[in-house]
Task: inverse folding
């Protein structure tokens, strides 16, 4: 099985507006509205990093993803912690996804070596207005 690897460049961040979306059974929603202790911002602030397992559903609030004709991609960039075993890749493209009600819902890829690693989750939305990024923060893959 071949995995898509993505090198992330410097891109201007746009703010994401968290909209209410229907709950999907067993889905972790990022950012978690009203639960700041469970959400970890990219700079490491905000409390504990939520955990999720490979194959579980993950939702990322991203108002820009609902735009008609938008090309939406979810990238999980592996954090470089010195105690973690190397994965052999820098990032993973989550391909099982759908967009609804201001959120992108993806299945965490069942990638070998991803367990016991922390990843930064970003949604890239490309449309006629340009490229927009929704930052889902960090999540620990169990």
Result:
């Amino acid at each position: 099985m071949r995995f898509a690897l993505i090198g992330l460049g410097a891109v201007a961040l746009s703010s994401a507006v968290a909209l209410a979306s229907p709950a999907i059974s067993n889905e972790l929603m990022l950012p978690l509205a009203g639960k700041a202790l469970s959400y970890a911002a990219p700079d490491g602030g905000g409390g504990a990093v939520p955990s999720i397992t490979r194959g579980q559903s993950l939702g990322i609030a991203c108002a820009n993803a609902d735009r008609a004709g938008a090309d939406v991609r979810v990238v999980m960039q592996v954090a470089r912690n010195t105690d973690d075993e190397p994965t052999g890749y820098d990032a993973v493209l989550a391909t099982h996804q759908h967009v609804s009600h201001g959120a992108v819902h993806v299945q965490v890829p069942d990638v070998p070596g991803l367990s016991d690693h922390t990843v930064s989750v970003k949604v890239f939305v490309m449309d006629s207005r340009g490229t927009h990024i929704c930052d889902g923060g960090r999540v620990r893959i169990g």
Observations:
- The chain has one domain: 27-141.
